[in-house]
Amino acid sequence: MKKQLFAVVAGAALAFPLFAQAEGFYAGANVGRSEFKASVDGQGSEKENKTGYKAYAGYDFTPNFGAEAGYVNFGKVKLYAEDASAHLKSSAFYVAATGTLPLNEQFSLFGKAGVTQNRAKISFNNDYFDFSGSKNKTAAMFGIGAAYHFDKKLSLVAEYENFGKILDVDGGNLKADLLSIGLRYKF
Fold first, then answer.
1. DSSP E strands: which ranges in 61-129?
2. pTM of the full structure
3. What CATH number is attached to the domain comprising 144?
4. Number of structural domains found in the chain
5. Are 38 and 169 in contact (CB under 8 A)?
6. Which of 34, 48, 59, 112 could form a disulfide linkage to 143, CB 3.0–4.6 angstroms apart?
7. What does the alpha-carbon distance between residue 88 and residue 119 come to, in Å, rounded to a whole number?
């Protein structure tokens, strides 16, 4: 464990000077409302909102086009019935192409489209049955947003991202999206 910690610290110490030279590199963190939408064939659908967050990094190849990768945690959903309980914890890793439309010195609009690897951990138990497992689902993702630039380095961003189906089982599926606000720092 100490060797791994040393390797991470040493790698970060070597990488930060490189990031300072990388003109188009940025990193950010957002927090907001994640929404789960469960659909069951013949039973309809239901929505559940939780607090979600994300951390991401990207690179702008030009002022209008770039690429971004990140990690999203959608939060936990807990359901209880008379003699049963279910817990769902979901997250995603994504990679996307980005497009930016500068409106003026302070404001810009952006969009992204890419692919996401969604992961859902599920546990269910009642008096007769216990189940625990995880499932991965690859899906397309897209997002739109706006940025307010305090200066050339620091921006306030607000965005909506749709991560598609995070869980697909016989007779139903679960979709997730994230509406968030955060800070982005450009190196």
1. 65-80, 84-102, 107-126
2. 0.78
3. 2.40.160.20
4. 1
5. no
6. 112
7. 10
